[in-house]
Write a structure and sequence with these properties.
403 residues; alpha+beta; Cytochrome p450; 14 helices; globular; Cyt_P450_sf; Cytochrome P450; Cyt_P450_CS
Length: 403
């Protein structure tokens, strides 16, 4: 970036296939770079130390409830969507879900994920080819998030996936969206709200064994309002699906591009959990987030006033040469052994650390493990990949492979 009014290079659609050189150039320029986003002056946070400090500091939050955020975010006005909330509201909503997403609780879903993946691999092996998105990561995420957690009938899942993609695209800053993107975001949000409103009402009358039924029970107990349950369901749909689908897709792509690492995982399948961490560092499904100073503070030698905004470039921080060695190399042993690398920011840090991280890990481990165990060689079946238009959520539309 050469000026505060220029488009940040990593946000340029032309750089979508590989934004990481642009991130490197930004890190070289400095840890905090002035930027004009949605006509509002903010700073891009490029390096690990400053990103980690902001993500873990109580002085930084979102500021919507206090009316001090410079960022326009329609999601902040959705009841129950706690991802853009600050304490104490954030803790109230997150606390209702924490028990469901504890590693021990999510581990019970491991056999379910493994069984689904084995069935998908049976189909792929019979066909002799596989789209790792449409044939693996998407149906697995749909079964786990839409099916197991939200209880969405299978026939409705393609419609919810289309809405979810439009909403995910709409989470990008407004000045990076077209008018069509904004209109699609509104239409999808309205469709989801109406759909989940009816589904929540049904769960109140006829509860099942899914998470949505547990949340609906909170309405009768006076703990939650119907609109809040709808907002939580919408958040789980978008955040849970995008993270899982793109984590698997980005990981499979990394293994295709580094066949020696795929062979190593076949020889040492115990490294698969460490490989998931390396995918999160190397090509994170969530590239950046936003924060607002809740009080006057200082980061990286720069003073910030209450209400100042920053864009935390987590994908840049996870390739910071000051913290990681061989930053552009995909190494599945990086997070293995007694001396693993520094914690990546692929799932964020602090108060807003990804709630669904344990479930996303289980899904990715099941996919990588089965794909490598049941094949001897993988090849990319296309010479050109199309990435999703979203900049916050990084992933490809299709990933055809042969084996």
């Amino acid at each position: 970036m050469t000026s505060s009014t220029a488009l940040f290079a990593a946000f340029d659609p032309a750089q979508q296939a590989d934004p990481y050189p642009a991130y490197r150039a930004a890190r070289d320029e400095g840890p905090l770079l002035p930027y004009l986003l949605d006509d509002v002056p903010v700073h891009l946070v490029t390096r690990y130390a400053e990103c980690a400090e902001i993500l873990t500091s109580p002085v930084w939050g979102h500021g919507y409830a206090e009316g001090i955020s410079p960022f326009r975010d329609p999601g902040a006005r959705i009841p129950g969507s706690f991802v853009r909330m600050d304490p104490p509201e954030h803790g109230r909503f997150r606390g209702l879900l924490t028990r469901q997403f504890l590693p021990r609780a999510v581990a019970e879903l491991g056999p379910t994920a493994a069984r689904i993946v084995e069935g998908l691999m049976d189909t792929a092996l019979a066909a002799g080819e596989l789209d790792a998105i449409a044939g693996l990561s998407e149906p697995l995420a749909a079964a786990m998030i839409q099916g197991r957690l939200l209880g969405i009938p299978e026939a409705d899942r393609p419609m919810l996936r289309a809405w979810e993609l439009a909403i995910a695209r709409g989470t990008d800053p407004d000045d990076l969206l077209t008018e069509a993107d904004k209109a699609a975001r509104i239409e999808a949000a309205q469709g989801c709200a109406a759909y989940f409103g009816e589904l929540v009402a049904r769960r109140c009358r006829e509860p099942g064994d899914d998470l949505l039924s547990s949340l609906a029970a909170g309405i009768a107990e006076g703990v939650l309002q119907p609109a809040e349950v709808v907002g939580i369901a919408l958040l789980l749909l978008v955040a849970g699906t995008e993270t899982s689908v793109n984590l698997v897709g980005n990981g499979v792509l990394a293994l295709l591009r580094a066949p020696d690492q795929a062979d190593l995982l076949r020889e040492r399948p115990e490294l698969v959990p460490a490989a998931v961490d390396e995918v999160l560092r190397h090509d994170a499904p969530t590239q950046f987030t936003i924060r607002v100073a809740l009080g006057d503070t200082e980061v990286g030698g720069r003073r910030f006033r209450r209400g100042d905004g920053v864009v935390v470039l987590m994908a840049s921080a996870s390739r910071d040469e000051r913290v990681f060695e061989r930053v552009d190399e995909f190494d599945v042993t990086r997070y293995a052994g007694s001396h693993p690398a520094r914690r990546h920011l692929g799932f964020s840090l602090g108060l807003h650390f990804c709630l669904g991280a344990p479930l996303a890990r289980i899904e990715a481990e099941a996919c990588f493990g089965a794909l490598l165990a049941r094949t001897t060689h993988l090849e990319l079946a296309t010479g050109e990949l199309e990435y999703l238009p979203s900049l916050i959520h990084r992933g490809v539309r299709e990933l055809p492979i042969t084996f």
